[in-house]
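Structure first, sequence second, as always.
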């Protein structure tokens, strides 16, 4: 029987640009299938989460983009229109639970793993799949995310316009989690342009193994919202070489936005925190593996973002950004985010085809 991890590795990342043609599955025209096409072969529908709650996996078109997403929570938290058995809430009805919306890294691994699926401290989990042939949030590659504006808009519209028809949740408690490329979209495009849309929310933004300074103009209303937003930057000692300068640049940029809005240094230090103490590679927060490292951060979300003690694997990660802007790294990996992840995953076995759940 296939595990969830195996399901994802079943050829999904083999379709990326740096995978060898011999290892990629072919489409009907003889060409290699893209990661997006392979992902489309993995069935959607309703299933059970690790904590016994329900998962709805479905697709909606937003601004011309097909956005596949998963949302997990108690059956009673879904609307009758969602199709989830036991869902009875009326569309648009506010609920008591908040949301933790996750954007995966390049290739989609964390979407299918869905590490935030279990309800944690009253947050329903959401994971969103990038609408890109390579499953890259923001499109492009590396630090150049050419479709960042459109993708950020789609995520914003998903949360504010689509999800209220699917689940009854508290719109004043919405958080976002980024993983690698997902963190690039959040920090570079989503937060700078859409923070005001979520102003008043008690949620925050957890940026794992990735970060960019704002890549778009920041309106005064968004700057004001950012200055009140809880943000945590989490990296590792052996972060990818390309990200080692980008993450500190993002830290400095967000600290500057808060200071420019009149927030005192001690308050900035409480709202914006940073850590890169784990002695691991890209996203290996447990110092072992990408998948288990990302899972560790998902399991530690409340400890980091919801007023917890900041302890992750026995370490306090809540270091104020003030005075800690210039992170110290060890020699990093020069590969792309996608190829680094693919290399880690394919060590487990040469999976080259898609199977159903």
């Amino acid at each position: 029987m296939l595990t969830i991890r195996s399901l994802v590795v079943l050829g999904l990342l083999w379709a990326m640009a740096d995978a060898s043609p011999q290892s990629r599955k072919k489409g009907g025209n003889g060409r290699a299938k893209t990661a997006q096409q392979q992902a489309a072969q993995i069935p959607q529908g309703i299933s059970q989460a690790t904590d016994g709650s329900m998962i709805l996996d479905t697709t909606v078109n937003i601004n011309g983009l097909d956005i596949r997403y998963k949302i997990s929570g108690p059956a009673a938290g879904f609307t009758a229109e969602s199709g989830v058995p036991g869902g009875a809430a009326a569309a648009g009805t506010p609920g008591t639970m908040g949301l933790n919306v996750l954007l995966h890294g390049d290739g989609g691994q964390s979407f299918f793993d869905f590490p935030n699926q279990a309800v944690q401290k009253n947050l329903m989990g959401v994971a969103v799949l990038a609408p890109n042939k390579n499953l890259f949030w923001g499109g492009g590659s590396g630090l150049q995310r050419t479709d960042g504006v459109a993708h950020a808009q789609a995520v914003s519209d998903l949360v504010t316009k689509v999800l209220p028809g699917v689940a009854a949740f508290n719109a004043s408690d919405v958080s976002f989690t980024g993983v690698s490329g997902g963190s690039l979209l959040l920090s570079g495009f989503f937060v700078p342009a859409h923070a005001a849309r979520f102003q008043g929310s008690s949620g925050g933004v957890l940026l794992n193994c990735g970060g960019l300074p704002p890549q778009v103009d920041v309106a005064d209303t968004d700057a004001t919202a950012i200055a009140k937003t809880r943000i945590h930057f989490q990296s590792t000692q052996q972060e990818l070489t390309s990200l080692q300068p980008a993450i500190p640049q993002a830290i400095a940029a967000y600290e500057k936005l808060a200071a420019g809005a009149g927030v005192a240094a001690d308050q900035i230090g409480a709202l914006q925190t940073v850590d890169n103490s784990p002695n691991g590679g890209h996203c290996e927060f447990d110092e072992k593996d990408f998948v288990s490292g990302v899972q560790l951060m998902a399991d530690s979300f409340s400890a980091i973002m919801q007023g917890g003690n900041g302890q992750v694997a026995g370490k306090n990660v809540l270091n104020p950004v003030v005075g800690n802007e210039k992170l110290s790294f060890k020699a990093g990996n020069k590969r792309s985010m996608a190829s680094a992840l693919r290399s880690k995953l394919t060590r487990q076995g040469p999976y080259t085809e898609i199977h159903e759940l």
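Margin note: The radius of gyration is 19 Å.
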